[in-house]
Structures are given as structure tokens and as C-alpha cells.
Queue: 4 jobs
Job 1
Amino acid sequence: MKALQFSRTGDLAALEVVELPTPVPAADEVLVQIKAAGLNPSDVKNVLGRFPYTTLPRVPGRDFAGVVVEGPSELIGEEVWGTGNQIGFSRNGSHAGYITLSAKGVALKPKSLSFVQAASLGVPYTTAWDALERSLVKADTRLLVIGANGAVGSAAIALAKVRGAQVLAAVRRPEQVKALQDQGYNAILLGKPEELSAQVNAVFQGGADVIFDTTGFWLPASVQALAQFGRIAIIAAPVDGHVQLPALALYRKGGSVVGVNSLLYGVEACARMLEQFGKLFDDGTLPLPTDLIETPIEEGLAGYAEVNEGSADKIILLP
């Protein structure tokens, strides 16, 4: 099979297109023929050496959709999708023609999603789902999502809308505000951090019950915009990993900060998440993904470079 593989880290030049033997599944595993694989920023960071637990040589890639060709009889021939924290790090990932993983680590692909669409959703949607679950977003929760135009932010506002939350989307550019408003969302334009509290209070009197910062830069400002007993969920941080937190204001509000990390979940836990929100695509309550960029796996190195340069395009690799 063709695959992308790296044998050292620190430079995208380490990534190569190689021919590897088709993997053989263990007794409790499936062999999936990959039809499409998502490319996420974490895949790029993996090749660059940002994850100390990655073992080499390694095929990267976390998200995939495909067909089970070996494994338990009831799964053979089924169209499945998956994601998780080992694949691409301590065992070979999805940027290849085939992948082996736990038979309980795949979920049946929603029929409304193509392979390409399903492969685009794993990391963004499991991250957003976990953030909403752990910050207790439910019907009528007043939720602010900062960076609502990104992959995780878009997933979060869509999932929150299904839950019946009151959603306020915050983005950096006027055209992004208009695009969100055209989709039916209340949206604000991010300006100076010290202005955020007034902007949020103009919509949610007393502040937001939950603030989900997908960018890593708005945690201090979020404390001021938080309601009493509110929660702030974070999935990113500045490059040095540190931020100055106004602790006095946080504890006086009874507020809490929730760290969200999709790499805490293995393929089996992720499959259960995929099952829960996957049905929402089939019943029409979640929008189908659009504007995906399909590229052959042989040209995947260029895709990695684009993501590393900050491209917002969602690239899907095709074996």
C-alpha cells in the first residue's frame, strides 16, 4: 500500500511517500481499506516533533473513513469511520491505503455522509463534542464560541444549536460575521480583549454561562465576560504554553476552566462519540460539511505544507 511515513521529526521534509506491506489485523482488530483520510494541524505538529510519545518510523493521520475488509464477520463490508489517540502516534495512522485498529474502535459511517465528508469530521467534532459535554452545555445554556469560523468552532456552534443552547459566535473578520449571520447565528466581531465583556453582556446580560475559546488567546478576557458559576473551555494556548489568568475575578464569579484535549481518548472512546453525533447528520439536524479539498495521498506532502503555513482549507487525502 502507498503511505506517508516519517522516520525522524523536526522538519516536514522528513515525510515521504512510501510503499508498505498491507498491515495484518490481530484477533480483536479490523483491517479497514481507507477511502478518505482527514489532515489535521495535529498531524503536521506530529511530524514536527511536538508529541514526545510518538514512536518512529510512523505513518501519521488520525481521522479516516473506509470499508472493513477483515475482522469480525458482522463488520466485513461495512462502511465505517474513526479517529483516536494512538493511531498516527504509537501505531500507524490513516494516511495510508489501509489501517488496523480495535474492532470496537470503528463506528458505522452515517449514510448521509460521503467518505470524504466523514473523514473531515473526526478530530474537530470529537473535540467540540467533548468541550460541550464537559462544560455542561445544554438547552438554553448561553454559550460564546471564540473562533467560531474554525473547524472546531464550527462544529461547536452546530452541535450546541442542536442541544438548544443560545449561541453567540465570535470571529475576527466582518465577512466571517456576515457568513455566520447568514447561517442564522448571532455573531460579534472580536476587537480589543478589554471590550469582550461589554460585547457579550450586550447579548447575554450578566455574561455567558460557557465560553469556549478555540484560539488560545482569549482566556483572560473570557473571565470578565463570564456569568456567575460559568465555565471556560480551552483547547489551545500561546506558543510558550503560559497565560496570565485573573484568578481573583475567576474565583469571585465561582468560575472554572475546563481543559479539552482530544488526545486523551482512544479509538474506542472516540467511536462512541462518533455514534452519538453521527446520527444527527442522518436525521438532518447537523449540516453536511462542504468546501473540502481532495488530494491524492501521493501529493499529501504539499497538503502538509499548506496546513503548516496556516491554510484554513480542510484537506482530505485519498489513497
Job 2
Amino acid sequence: MKIPDFEVIFTTAFEKYAIKAIKFSSLDYLLKPIDLEELKAAVDKARGRMDTSVYRQQIETLMQNLGQGRRKQEKICLATTAGMEFILIKDVIFCKADGSYTSFTLKDGSSLLVSKHLKEYENLLSDHQFMRVHNSYLINLKEVKKYIKSDGGYIIMSNDMHVSISPRKKEDLLYSMRRL
């Protein structure tokens, strides 16, 4: 596959799977009808891209994710202060809200700070067995090691981190864990 040497901004009237693939790849998209201010911002952002290797990785991630069709995406692109990180979704243990930022904790013990709200990742990762169990936590259900009933209920993740469970989310969590 030949990688284009130009920037791409997607426009769509809304196609659920394409939008998710684009978001996973951290590329821009505009919903129709196109707002002039959003178009200007997207073009400015496209002009500002300087690192073509990052852009190539974004396009490759998008193509892989689109190739998945109705299957689930395997990678997500995270924009950090240092640049773009392309990680496997299965390597995420949990995400934690940190004001208007989100901290990703990974299986290798590292963490990444991304300047997007946890809510955006909740929407992206909900199809990948991730669940919001607390106002501040989005967890990978496959990485839950133990559920503890005492102290209002909490879970222990595969990295031994303790995560509180909101009382409103407790039943949903238990139901989801039984379905794994």
C-alpha cells in the first residue's frame, strides 16, 4: 500500500464504524453539514503536521482498523505531549480521569497522559470490553483480577491496582464479569 504524501480530512454524514476507525487513528473528520469554523480548525491542524512518519502510522492504523470491518479495532492512537503513541487496545489495563486529561495504564507498567476527557475513550472502548466503573475509572474487564465486596466494593486489576466501584455501577460490573 502506498502511503499518500498529503493530509486527509474525512467528511461524513455519520457512519458509526468509519467514525470510530478514524477516531482510533487520531485523524480528523467533519460531520455534514460542515461547519466553517470546524473546517478551518481541521485545515490548520492538517497544515501543522510536520512528522510524516507519525502520519504514516496514523494512516496504517486507520487502514488496519477499517480492514477489520465489523470486527474490533486492535490499535488506538493516543496523542501525548511527546507525540503520537500507537498501542494495542489489549495492552490497556485501565484509564483514569485526570481533570481534562486521561491517564492510560498499560500492561508493561508504563502510563500515558492524553489531553482528552475520559468520556471520549469510554465511547471508543466500550465495544472492547471496557467499562466505566467509577466517575474516574474506565477499566479493561479482561484485566480484572479480583472483586472485593468489603469497603463498598472495589476491584483489583492485573497490576494489583485497587479501583473503587461506584455503587450505581456495581450490578452492571458484576453482570458484565459473569458474561466474560
Job 3
Amino acid sequence: MTALEPGSFLADLTAAERADLEARSRVRDFERGDTLFSEGEQPGWVAVLLRGRVKAFSYREQGGEALLAVRGPGALLGEVAAIDGLPRSASVAALEPVQALAIGADEFMAFLQAHGRVSILIMRMLCQRWRDADRKRVEFGMFDATGRVAQRLVELAERFGVPYVPRGGPGEPAAGGESVRITLNLSQEELAGWVGASREAVSKALRTLRRHGWIETGRRRLIVHDLQALRRHAR
């Protein structure tokens, strides 16, 4: 199993809680592009990511996807539908090979009843997601497409970034510090669905950020050379 994201559901469980969860679950593997959950379906099971990353999204009435979130190792998925018993509010698909613990909805509720502390963890996690959703709604009214793309690149760099050194060896560092390579490969269509803009607007925003020298893009490659500049632009 790869490293869990700090603050994720699985990372915050005690050893005893995790052992009980694993005893009630089975491991499932998914390939890139596989669907874990489909919007509107009944909640049969809950997932906890062990390896790989997924996207949560909803289909737009006019076509295309609205990307809602990207989740990594340790994330809990599908818990809302399991708790309230209503159809799933979003689809979840693998962005890369994924391994997850799968636990039936009824067994998940029994797990929560046996571990009151975990229920509090989930309440806090849901509060964080609601606050994040509120913040993103404010962003749509305050920033243009370039600003929203910069915000999402900052998030990706902070969550999925690793130090980047050119093949020729380290050179002069950017004004914002060392360069960072984003290890998660999102298409321009997916990024457009995340920022609520057209693919053309996202392509134009990326060109603007490249022209400033803040980012570098290539085939399945996205490097941030000046994270501080992106942060300033995203404020």
C-alpha cells in the first residue's frame, strides 16, 4: 500500500479501528477508467482507498463532466449514501490503477455503531468537504478561468507534487522555490470540468501561466516552477 494522504479517513483510524474495518471488508482492484460508483445508483457498499487516486464527478445536463473532487489513498468514498440511504449523488472513477477496501453499507453502519469516535471523524470530514464546496462556489464568482486554474494547480501541487530536477541537473531555482512535478495526470477536459470552464478557456489559461514561466506542460507532464506566483494569482 502506498502512503496515505495526511488527514485522510484511514490515516486517522487507530490500529484497533483499522483492524476491525479490514475484518469487515474485502480488497477490490480497479483499472484506470473503471467506475467504482455511478450517480443515482442505490448505495450497496462503501470504499476506502488503499492505493491510487479517483475522481468524483457528476454529468452536466449540457454534456460533459463536472469534476467535484480528487481523492487519494486513505479516502473514504460513498459514505453519505450509506448513511442516509438515498441514491448516490455522484459517480466515482479510477484515474489510475486503484486498490480499495470494500465494505457493505450495512456492515459499514455496524462499524460506526461499534466505534463512536469514528462517527465524529466522519462528521468533521464532511464539515471540511462542505466548507471546501462553499469556498469553491465563492471562487466561481471572484476569479476568471485563469485564476481558478491557478487555484487547482496549487491544490494539485500541494497534494500530489514531488520535487522536480531537470535531466540536465539542478539549475537556477524559480523565484517561488524549487520546481514541483504534479504526479496526477488530469486531462484538459477533466481540469475544465473541475474549474467550471470550457476546454478552450483552460487551454488559454495554461498558455498564460506558461508564458509567465510559472508552469511547464508536456505530454502527460505538468511541472510547477513557481508555486508562490500561482498562489498569489489564485488569491
Job 4
Amino acid sequence: MAEDRIEVDTGTEELLCEIRDRVALVTLNRPEARNALSDQLTPALRRMIRQCGEDSRVGALLITGAGTAFCAGGDVKGMGNNSAKAETPIDERIADLRVKQRTLTGALVELRKPTLAALPGPAAGAGLALALACDIRIAAESAVMTTGYARIALTGDYGIAWLLTRLVGTSRARELMFLSERIDARRCETLGLVNRVVADAELRAVAFSLARSLAEGPSQAFAGMKDNLDHALATDLLDSMDQEAAYMVRSAQTTDHKEAVRAFIEKRKPVFVGH
């Protein structure tokens, strides 16, 4: 049987995308720069996040990096040489960054499809925020994470404070931000920054296998789960249970639920259709 594989034009060689078995595999492709964000890569990544959210052919989104890094974040070398940016009024620069953040990591968090990050190596700064904005993170044994901002006297962006605080708690988030230490994959797993650590050679296969299993899953139920989990961060128990009750009863009416029950009785794998 021929593999279901669709190449997607991202508009730049710095970002690659293909849809395979309902998984959108998005690869940051600047290995010579440890996949640091650039003026070509970042807008393309924003477009792909939005496009994958709207594409019915995509059941899950998997983001990774080419070579031996995930994403080194912003281009530090270029930060002191951008005279045009320095001449832009500060209010305009703030407004511009707010839009950029909302349409990158903000859009990734808001995506109602399962999202995964596969880390073959370092994730730093905004690159770390990109990984943390995904639902699930799988790291190679040689991967490391660092906030990095303190090392260049910056405060952090792309949701790093919000994401870290919710994943590791207030005290650990402060430690990670203030010290900007390089945290190895096993400690990242202990802290809750990554879900799984696998051998370097197995990363791609393991991450894609997990993404494919999610892409084949009940997409409407996954969207509802994400709604419930997000809602739980900002409300009390009773309100959270009230929303769960509404979503649970509605999900019980779906074709996918009925198919899952039939498959359970017939001892076979369910085939979900997304409604």
C-alpha cells in the first residue's frame, strides 16, 4: 500500500512541512544555525500552524528541528546590528511583538488538535517556548533545555513565563529563568518539561508513531479535552466539573463515541471520522 504523503509548500527552504498519515510534520530547517528563528522561518511557521489547524487532512501536528538541535531561539548575533528596529518607536515595537507572540506560540496553544514537539537537541529561549507550547514533548537523550534570557539580559517572551509556571510551578520557573542553566533531558523529564526521553536514534520514529496514533484518534473528543484542560487552569473545581458535564454529554452523542463502543464490543480498532 502506498504511503499517504503530501508535500506542503511553506514558502521557504528554512521550514519544511509534509502531511503523512494525517500527521503534519513541520521541520525547522536551519541546522547550520541550530534552527534559530529568522525573518523567513518564523512567518512561515506562523502560517503553517494556522494552516494545519484549518486543514481537515491534519489530525496532529509534530514540530521538530533538522540536524542536532530543536531551536536555538532568536538570533543573538543579529540583535545588536538591527539599526532599523532601534529607530522604530518603542510602542510600535511592543505592539509588533505582541502580534508575533499571539500568532506563534499563542496560536499553537490555542490549536484544538494534538501537538507534539520532538527535540533532537537544544531548545533555548523562544525555541524553548515553542516546545513548551505543544501538548507533548519527546526529547532525545542528548537534548538540553535552557531559558537563556538572563545570559543576554532579557526578560523573556513568547509565553515563556506562563508556560513554565504552569508546567513546573512558581519556584522552579524562577530558578529556570534566573539561572538560565542548561538542563539535560533526564532532568527535564523529572521536572515535567518533557514527557518522554528516548535514544537519539529512536526519536523520529517514536515521536511520529505517537503523533500518528493521536492523528487517528477521536479529534472532536481531543478538542473538548483541550478545552476542559485549559478551562481548568483558570477556574475552580465546581465550575470545571460543570463544563466537563456539558462536554461529556455532548461527546456521548457523537458518531465517534458510538463507533468506539461498537469497536470495543467487536474487539477491533475503532475508525474515527471526527464527528
